[in-house]
């Protein structure tokens, strides 16, 4: 019956923002399942969120990968609402359920952090001009990492580092390939220089226990290697961005001097 309601209401309100209607339905199922201590309703709520995330990915986000469109603020705001809802679910569902939370629900809450971060990046991608997207992604990656440290959420820190990697790829493939001017100043210089500075800041903010409760000395294997190289990777990315930007923007005679200053 609950599954039929999830499917029926969007059909009844065809033409309305179906994503937000589905979100309200899924949240209602989660809240009712929590208040009634009914694990089956909560599972339906988590399943509805999964269907919603899949629908948004293929219906709203994927087409823009094929046919680029100008900034779309309404879709950006919708994705921002979804990002906030998914992150709030991930943060508060395990705490409200307490010992009643099943392993499946805890895993779903962790996945919600990843989905929320993805929707947050997609919201920026839809709403802003293409040269500003990577810079805002870099800033958001650092904010997500910092939020994970303040709230002691390992999954959120991992999502932040993943967002930083996505931002770095976009800076290398988009921002360093275009010289769009703004009031006589190249946006390549502005966005890449600011993003590089943010990567340097991010390198200084990484904690010894970035991946969990263990410190860098206690961690072993792959985790210890990541803790050792992650700050260097941030600094390396900042320096690489600046070096390529200088190569693109400076004259041949000034490139060597500029690289020496770096």
Q: How would you describe this protein?
A:
With 262 residues, the protein is mainly alpha-helical. The protein contains ten helices and two strands, in the order αααααααββααα. It has a two-stranded antiparallel ribbon with strand order 1-2. The longest helix has 29 residues, at 221-249. The radius of gyration is 21 Å and the shape is flat.
Topology diagram in text:
Elements: H1 2-12, H2 18-35, H3 39-66, H4 73-97, H5 103-127, H6 130-150, H7 154-173, E1 181-182, E2 185-186, H8 187-205, H9 221-249, H10 252-261
Antiparallel strand pairs: 1-2
Question: What's the end-to-end separation, in Å?
Answer: 64 Å
- In the predicted model, the low-confidence regions spanning at least 5 consecutive residues are 215-222
The overall pLDDT, averaged over residues, is 84
Q: Which class of secondary structure composition applies to the elements?
A: mainly alpha
Which percent band covers the strand fraction?
under 5%
Helix content range: over 70%
| Topology as a string of helices (H) and strands (E) | HHHHHHHEEHHH
- Rg is 21 Å
The major β-sheet equals:
2 strands, antiparallel
- Number of strand elements: 2
Give the strand order of the largest sheet, numbering strands 1, 2, ... along the chain: 1-2
Please tell me what the overall shape is.
flat
User: Treating each run of at least 4 consecutive H or I residues as one helix, how many helices?
Assistant: 10
């Amino acid at each position: 019956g609950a599954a039929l309601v999830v499917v029926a209401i969007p059909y009844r309100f065809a033409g309305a923002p179906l994503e937000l209607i589905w979100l309200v339905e899924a949240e209602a199922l989660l809240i009712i399942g929590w208040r009634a201590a009914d694990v089956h309703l909560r599972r339906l709520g988590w399943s509805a969120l999964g269907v919603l995330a899949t629908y948004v990915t293929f219906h709203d986000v994927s087409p823009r990968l094929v046919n680029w469109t100008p900034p779309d603020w309404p879709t950006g705001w919708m994705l921002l609402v979804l990002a906030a809802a998914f992150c709030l679910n991930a943060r508060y569902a395990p705490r409200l359920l307490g010992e009643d939370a099943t392993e499946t629900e805890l895993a779903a809450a962790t996945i919600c952090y990843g989905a929320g971060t993805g929707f947050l990046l997609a919201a920026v991608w839809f709403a802003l001009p293409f040269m500003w997207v990577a810079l805002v992604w870099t800033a958001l990656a650092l904010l997500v990492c910092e939020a994970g440290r303040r709230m002691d959420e390992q999954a959120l820190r991992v999502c932040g580092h993943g967002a930083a990697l996505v931002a770095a790829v976009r800076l290398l493939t988009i921002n360093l390939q275009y010289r769009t001017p703004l009031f006589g100043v190249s946006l390549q210089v502005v966005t890449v220089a600011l993003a590089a500075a943010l990567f340097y800041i991010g390198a200084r903010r990484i904690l010894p226990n970035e991946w969990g409760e263990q410190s860098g000395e206690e961690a072993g294997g792959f985790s210890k290697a990541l803790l050792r190289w992650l700050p260097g990777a941030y600094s390396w990315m900042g320096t690489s961005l600046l070096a390529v930007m200088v190569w693109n923007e400076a004259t041949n005679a000034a490139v060597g001097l500029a690289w020496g200053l770096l």
